[in-house]
Amino acid sequence: MWRSFVGEQTFVSEYFRSRSDEEQTSGSKTPPPTASNSEDGRSHSTSDLEKRLAESSINDENVLKPVAFEYKPRERKIDLSKQHIMTSASMFDKNAHSDRPAPEMPSTVGIEYPRAASWSSSTVEEILRDSIGRQVFRCFLFQSLAEENLLFVEAIEELEKDKDGKHIRDGIKDLLNNYGSYINLSSKAMAMLKEAAEAEHPNPKALEVAHKEISKLLENDQFPRFRRSAIYIEYLEQLLPKSYAERWSHSFEALLGNQVGRHHFRQYLFSVHAEENLRFWEAVVEYRALKDKSAAMQNMGKTIYNQYLREGAHNEIFLPFGVRQGVEKLLKEKEVDQHLFDNAIKHVEQLLKNDPYVRFLQSKEYNDLLAKLK
Hints:
Number of domains: 2
Shape: flat
Strand order of the largest sheet: 1-2
Number of strands: 2
CATH architecture of the largest domain: Orthogonal Bundle
Oligomer: single chain
CATH superfamily of the largest domain: Regulator of G-protein Signalling 4, domain 2
Helix content: 40-55%
């Protein structure tokens, strides 16, 4: 089953670990004040306000009384056009915004679903070569208050094409003035840029090091979040042919292999408090995409075990004792490769395919999606 995905994607390389916590807000009622009454029915109080009220003989019905109320949180939808980029020294200072307009989401006209779906299994370099993919990614970064990283990379790419020393020096000064307070460069890279900004013949290595660091940040931090972001899923959903979604009712593999399908399946599982199995499945997808037998694979294998397989883990999934013990043994012996979770995945896929998958096909989540697709 694992290698037999059908549909527009062949193998999923992203890990959807994100999960929204339920907002819990409780109202509080203000209890009415109590008074200690004397024999003549008049309240004793040391408050000047109460003395003045008593002297004025204000009737009870004219006195403002405390009103109990309950705060009900309102669902907040992000309006991309009203989001702004920070211009203060702190990227997360919400009191300081620039007037840079929000980038517009590209139209879906002329864009085929497979093209947009391929971005989820691409790299940052690949998506930036696609003009539409670049714009969707830019909108995500703007919404996430991180567009400066992409603007910085684009500015460096232009400078790297320039051969005039003065132009390069002035360009580096502009980089530092415009983005120095927001980008997360190492002290070494920042020092190299500052030195190049003052040199008669700027060292090209300064641009190369800074470019590499911010590109790595985009690749490892922001791009994984883009893959599972609402803005990307919504764009894909607008392009999704109805025939793709109808295929899910006949093929469990097609459902799991489809970005939009897996998103809605996850939403359904979350509503019935059973999303851990799918999250584990997605974690293993990312694990298998790593270089075989690498240190990164070893570390991620331990992370997955601690998060989903370890007894008492917060997101513990149900596995036969022998399967769990087998994974633990291989981790201890550092015999870690792409097959570490094979038996666990087979068991989880069978669990998902039985009751949850059947119920999802009957759910409002799935049928509402079908109704709005063309």
